[in-house]
Structures are given as C-alpha cells and as structure tokens.
Write a structure and sequence with these properties.
Strand order of the largest sheet: 2-1-3-4-5
Radius of gyration: 21 Å
Strand content: 5-15%
Largest sheet: 5 strands, parallel
CATH superfamily: SGNH hydrolase
Structural class: alpha/beta
Order of helices and strands: HHEHHEHEHHHHHEHHEEEHH
Number of strands: 7
Number of domains: 1
Helix content: 40-55%
C-alpha cells in the first residue's frame, strides 16, 4: 500500500507543479489586462498590492464607479481619494473589497457609501466572474464571498488551473499585449448619450419589485458596527437617478426608508440626490440609473459641496 501511495505521489507531483506554475503565469499576466472583465483588474490589483491608502474611499456599485470622480474630490478637499465601485454587484461583494482593503492597506478616514435600490438585493449568478480568476486560488475571503453564487465550484478555489477550463477568452487575454489603464483611481466616466435600456425594461415588465436579501442586510449592519469600532466615518449618499426610473421600482420608498433608519440609528449623514435637479434631466444620463460623464462631473461637484458642509476633512481628522 505504501509503495502504491509513493508511486501515485511521484506520478502526480510533476503534474501539480506544472499546473501551479502555469496557473501562476496565466494569473499574473491576466491581472495586467485593462480591457477584460469590465476593466476591474486595475482596482483589484491596487487593493491587493496596498496601493489604495486613501483618506476617502468610495464604495458602491457601478453607480459609484462611473458617477463619482475621486480626482475632483482630492483636488478640492486636498485629501487622497479612491473609488472602489464594483460593477453589477450589491453590498455582498462591496464588503469583500472593504475587507481586503483593510487587510492590505491603511484604513480610510471616511467611506462614502453609494446606495441604490439594489444595494441589499443579491443575485443568484456571479456577474462578471472573470474578475476573480487571477486572485481566487487559495484565497479564503474571495471563496467565502463568492461561493454562494452560481459561478464557481469548490475545486476552482483549491486546485490550480481548474477554474480556467472552459474560459478560453481569459487565457487568450493573458497572452496578449496589455492595454492602457482607463480607470483613474478606480473611476471611469462614460461619455455616452441616452440609450434604450430603460425602454427595453418597460416593455418586459410594468414595474420592478426589489427582493431584499436577509444575509446582505445582516452583513450591512455588521459593516456599520465594524466601522464604528474602528473609528472609520461613513457618509451615505443616494446618487441622482432619472425620475422615470425611480417610478419604475414598485417598493422604492420602503428601501429608502430602510437607509434612513440606518442613518438615524448609527448617526450617519445621508445625502439623497434622487430629487436633485439632475434627476429630472435626461441629457445627463445614459440610462435610468447612470449619469454620463458630464452628469457625473456635475454630481461630483454637488457631493464635494455636501462634504464641505459636513466639514470634511477637518471634522474627521480632528476626531482621530
């Protein structure tokens, strides 16, 4: 029996070693891509490599990513700022970025948390799963955050190369010349005009009812308590949202009330821009949920004014 085990070990060892080095080669090169996986790699790299280290960090979905310009905030308030908005995901994976940020970087003084009606709704499928490929091998936090979605199997997190099978585009991308980084400190404004996304949604359904995820709600409150214990200040914002899109969500008011409740319970400033004049002007949006680049710059100016009223950064730095 011992001889058999030894033979199996000798047989498998070269395969395991080759698989590991091949995996490492693909993953290292894939991280350098600035066009694949919705261009998320530059942000993940900054998190894992400890290159965030900012006074202000912006959390949220794509409504943070494409709508809040960190450079404008930095220049106006004279503080370092980074945008960690993650496309297509609710708070469940926004929190993953938060936990990895604290693990690899200096903690921020202030978190600007961009809320929307989808923040506490969790999808079944792992949107843009390719963004996790270069980082997920033997990473416990990524495994815990993503395994509950339809996307990866348990062996994908534990055995080299397995997760790349069937993902030829990722492997091919790893072999290509790398493109220029387009996100600036995590942000990328979209210089686009109004499209037909909203019209398509209205044809498919009369309205949309948000189903809140109980696990996401529990995690959200855990995050609020965690930041309180670590003396990290939070500001809630609800970015501008095209008025017709607001009417499309059936239970929108109850979701807003939930955010207002948390704002009062944890004494967190809450700036709701959904009734701001921007929300009534279609020319500043490229769909019902997202401002175009011009709208994003106008909104960021309004956000800066709100932060100044909040007396940031003096109130935050003075309290530490």
């Amino acid at each position: 029996m011992k001889k058999f085990i030894l033979q199996i070990t000798l047989f498998l060892s070269p395969i395991i070693l080759v698989s590991y080095f091949a995996d490492n080669y693909i993953s290292t090169n894939l991280k350098k891509s600035n066009s694949f996986a919705e261009k998320e790699y530059s942000t993940w790299n900054a998190i894992f490599e400890g290159k965030i280290n900012s006074d202000i960090v912006i959390y949220g979905s794509s409504r943070a990513w494409v709508q809040i310009d960190p450079t404008m905030i930095s220049n106006s308030l004279n503080v370092s700022t980074y945008n960690l908005g993650i496309d297509g995901h609710n708070f469940w994976l926004q929190y993953l970025r938060h936990s990895l940020l604290l693990e690899n970087n200096i903690k921020p003084n202030l978190i600007i948390l961009s809320l929307d009606v989808f923040t506490l709704q969790k999808a079944e499928n792992l949107y843009n799963s390719e963004q996790f490929l270069p980082y997920m091998l033997w990473n416990k936090k990524i495994k815990e955050a993503t395994i509950s979605y339809n996307g990866f199997n348990l062996i994908d997190y534990e055995i080299p190369l397995i997760r790349y099978f069937g993902r030829g585009n990722a492997v091919q991308t790893a072999m290509k010349i790398k493109s220029k980084v387009e996100r600036i400190r995590g942000y990328q404004g979209r210089d686009e005009q109004w499209n037909n996304d909203f019209d398509k949604a209205k044809k498919e359904m009369k309205n949309y009812n948000i189903v809140l995820d109980s696990a996401s709600i529990i995690l959200f409150e855990r995050f609020l308590n965690e930041c309180k214990s670590k003396n990290i200040k939070i500001v809630f914002i609800y970015p501008p949202e095209y008025i017709e899109g607001q009417k499309f969500v059936k239970n929108r008011r109850s979701i807003i009330s939930l955010y207002e409740k948390y704002s009062k319970k944890y004494n967190i400033p809450y700036y709701d821009y959904s009734r701001d004049p921007l929300s009534f002007q279609k020319n500043f949006f490229y769909n019902a949920s997202h401002l175009n680049k011009t709208g994003a710059e106008l909104f960021t100016k309004k956000l800066i004014d709100s932060l100044k009223k909040y007396n940031y950064p003096i109130s935050i730095l003075g309290s530490k």
